[in-house]
Amino acid sequence: MAAPALAQNAAPYRDCTALPPNLVDNCGFEQAPVGDEIVPGWGVTFGDGSEPALTLGPTTELPHSGSGVLVFQPAGGNDPDTVTQSLPHLQPSSTYQFGVWWYGGVVTPESIPDSSGTFDAYVDGVVGGTQYAVKKTSEDTYAPGWSFSMVNFTTAASGTPRIVLSASGASTYVRVDDVAVAQVPSAPVAPTNVSATAGDASATVSFHAPANTGGLPITAYTVTSSPGGLTSVGCTSSPCTVSGLTNGTPYTFTVTASNLAGTSPASSASSSVTPAAEQSITFAQPETQTYGTPFTAVATSDSDLPVTFSSTTDAVCTVTLSGVTTFHANGTCTIDADQAGNDAFLPATTVERSFQVDPGTPGAPTITSVTTASGSVTVSFTPPTETGGSPIVGYLVSAGQRSQECDASPCTVSGLVNGSAYEVSVAAQNELNTGPAAQYEGTVTPLATQTIEFANPGSLPFTMTANLMARATSDLPVTFTTLTPDVCTVTRAGGLTPVSAGDCTIAAHQDGDDATAPAPEVDQTFSITAVASDAVRLSEGWSGDTTVSIAFAPPVNTGGAPILSYSVTARGGTAPVTISCAGSPCTITGLVNGTAYTVAVVPVTSAGNGASVFYRGRLTPHGSQTISVVGAPESGYTGTSVTLAATATSGLPVTAELGDAGDPGACSVSGLTISLLTPGTCVVGLIQAGDAAYSHAVPVVVSIVVTTAPASALTVPSGPVTTGSDQTFTASGLLPGTDATFVLHSNPIVLGTVTVSSTGVATLTTALPSGVTGSHTVIVTGTSADGTAVTLSQGITIADPAATLPRTGAPDLSGLLVLAGAALLVLAGAALLVLAGAALLGGAVLLLMTRRRRAH
């Protein structure tokens, strides 16, 4: 075991202000007035007695050491009187000893016998719970005289331990003195944060001291290399040096710390470093340099490795790695020379050299403009881009032999002779040098000044011309120009001509001569007022349905103002009718057809109504009308007629006339009925000539192609067909748009009714009736192309699809029906016998066609 941290006689009084780390003492017992119930540096909790519970006793209380002692004398009750002190400065996870001197009973005037009181001295907030140095119960007997009690405890990884002194019981009387806490000595923990720097056959190792020194001072640190196991000698603090290493070999290092109690574990190893030979740089001091001149820094290393350069004054100079230096301003230029080393050589110590850079010559300014005045010239310019490394302090501007110094642009040189030509230049100056001059191209000539006197002529009417007057103070002639050509024009001599109403602005000029500068332009603005417009120029007039219209050209002279509108008046009815229109042509509506009107036009401007003009004759409105026709066919057959339904919107009658464009004899006209006579083209014109209130209508032409009506025919499927099958029947030569009905005889069965197409064909596709077989007749009734009724018939044989043998014998004609006009002819049970050759015709087709003319 380690030696005790506290001996029974090793707790003397200590001054609170000089208390060493890891110690707690009863210094407060000596600091307060005698009899005080407050213990400096300690926390006090009183019990439930009514008398003073604890005090700092007088010297008669015989302290163990020093002049003060803590006295417990509870007045009674069960709550203890307690004195505590926190120990925040103890190291975590470390072992300490807590010791206390205590004395039970009084010294004078008499002894107090053992009582039922208690007294405890302990440490809490530590590993393993509360650790008691003293734990006297009411059954324990007080030992006579001073006693020393001690206990070891271990601090936790976190938290704050606390000393507690506590007494209770009415007859308890306890003195306490020389309370102390000290760390139990042990070896320190390992150092941390180890790092190494290589040297020439050596390395310098830095580290942090152990967080826990084991309660004893560190007596030595030992640094050990790997490989080789070489160690530092006589090192008591960071950093430590290890010598005897081999240059070019990588090494890592560990560190141990030692005190009187032992040596710590080795630290974590440092990063690897490689010792190398030292080298030094030779860098001669540069002389003063001038801005704008070339300079290259030169330095060498005794290792023969290349030296690199850098600037620490970039505002004055910059340098490349190889030493090429660029100056940016005058001042002090500082350049560092470095050699970074390699496997055999350590980095060289930086060598720094500073030298003066004097200003150079500035560049030439740039002249931007040169202006003259009477006896002077003013030069404007921009500073040079190159200042010579020093700020520009001024400029020297020259005009011939005269010059002027200025701080900035512009700069004026005075005292010149008007009319004389001068060469102009400007040069920049820094604090040491004047740069080259910038020369203005050509020469400049100062001129005398002049002004123009130009009075405002006031408002002028549009119809008035004027001669403007102005005078120059130089007595040179003044000229004029217009700034508002849309309003007015002016001659150079001042002859003014209005163009339109508005604000007219005239500028007066005097351009100077060899000795006189141009005068400042003088402008005068005055009004050109509008007058009434001239009359329009009429060109054409016409009438319409309750309207008259007039066309015209605008006035040649509008009085200086734009035309706002035109006022047009028609007179001839019960009251004049006036309208306003924007331009030609103008139309007046709402007039009475058949009434003659006179028409007048007046232009209107901002100046009012202009001159009026009347159309040369009267205009009479007429209603318009159109012809419409219904039922006019495009084609028709000879022998038929067409009656047209033609009307006019006026309600007046429409007549029809044969047109010259048709074929002669193709048709004839009677009223609105057209008779189609021979093939060709029939052309008829429909006419309405108008009357007093209506103009004639545009004729409507009707054209009809006349053809001969085609013959009617019926087509049925050839050969035997089967009952119930779909078959197609076609009848041609019929009247388009009419109905055609198909019937199967002998026992009549209607197959269907269809509408005749535009080509005169009726087509029916349908299924034959089931169970009907044998020879039959298909009969079609309808209207032929020429409009007459027509009946068409055609025989057809229908077979039973289940029959296996061909049918023999005479044809059965019992079902044949022939319609002739309104009569029905029935041929039943008879055989048709052809006499010539006595041949029997079976299944023959009989076509009987009967036509009846349609009455007209």
TrEMBL record:
Record's keyword annotation contains Membrane: yes
UniProt keyword list: Carbohydrate metabolism, Glycosidase, Hydrolase, Membrane, Polysaccharide degradation, Transmembrane, Transmembrane helix
Domain Fibronectin type-III: residue ranges: 187-277, 361-449, 532-623
One term of GO molecular function: hydrolase activity, acting on glycosyl bonds
InterPro entries, per database record: FN3_dom (IPR003961), FN3_sf (IPR036116), Ig-like_fold (IPR013783), Invasin/intimin_cell_adhesion (IPR008964)
Keyword Hydrolase included in the entry's annotation: yes
Transmembrane segment boundaries: 816-849
GO biological process: polysaccharide catabolic process
One Pfam family, short name: fn3
Protein name: Fibronectin type III domain protein
Species, as recorded: Microbacterium ginsengisoli
